[in-house]
Design brief:
This protein has 197 residues and is an alpha/beta fold. It has a single domain, classed as Rossmann fold (3-Layer(aba) Sandwich). Helices cover 37% and strands 19% of the residues. The protein is built from six helices and six strands; from the N terminus they run βααβαβαβαβαβ. It has helices at 14-17, 31-49, 69-77, 118-126, 139-152, 170-187; strands spanning 5-10, 53-59, 105-109, 131-137, 156-165, 191-192. The chain has a six-stranded parallel beta sheet with strand order 3-2-1-4-5-6. α3 links the parallel β2 and β3 (105-109). α5 runs parallel beside α6. The protein is globular.
């Protein structure tokens, strides 16, 4: 594994993957995500075995008290975008299938971009990380925001195209396709397959 590289895994948590957190009435279903996660799990196992550095990113509870002012204002002003978690058990933020092992870092975020948690940037700088392999969910939301955040802070990014996914929505799947084929490779970095990285 390159010494200055880390694998960043974004939001592979129950509220973004597990069937019981789907909202079919709002078109939020995760079957494509659940098909991708076992592939990610295999890749993580191989990456770990080869001595690669793995970093997990997950949301704080997606409830009003944990979210920043701008997201609360968005939800207040545009009710169609409102998405608060109704789970107060903490299970929503538990990792789904792909879990950190001892010694691997977990950073919590209360917005879309993982870099809104300043501890992530500090950790990367302290450890000399210059390149991030990006994986996780939702490709058109938190993954995309984190790619933007990483690149704007000077990191090189490589997106694992088969290890990022979004909801089953046809619109979101089309957007993901455009991100993978056009936006990401032109603006941020190559979209590669986990089988060749």
């Amino acid at each position: 594994m390159p010494e200055k590289e880390a694998l960043l895994i974004i939001d592979t948590i129950n509220s973004c993957c597990a069937r019981e957190y789907e909202l079919p009435g709002r078109g939020i279903k995760f079957s494509r995500i659940r098909k991708m996660v076992p592939l990610l799990e295999k890749y993580v196992s191989r990456y770990r075995k080869n001595g690669g550095r793995i970093i997990f990113v997950a949301c704080t509870p997606w409830t009003r008290e944990f979210l920043p002012r701008n997201i609360r204002a968005l939800y207040d002003n545009f009710p169609s975008s409102r998405y608060y978690s109704e789970d107060s058990t903490g299970k929503a933020e538990d990792f789904y299938m792909v879990r950190p092992v001892e010694g691997e870092k977990v950073f919590r975020k209360s917005s879309y971009d993982a870099f809104t948690n300043p501890a992530l940037g500090k950790f990367l700088r302290r450890n000399g990380i210059e390149t991030l392999l990006i994986s996780g969910v939702f490709s058109d939301a938190c993954v995309n925001a984190t790619i933007n955040g990483a690149f704007s802070r000077g990191y090189s990014v490589r997106i694992l195209g088969d290890l990022v996914e979004t909801t089953d929505s046809r619109t979101r799947q089309r957007l993901q396709k455009l991100l993978k084929e056009y936006s990401w490779p032109i603006l941020y970095g190559p979209v590669i397959s986990s089988r060749v990285s």
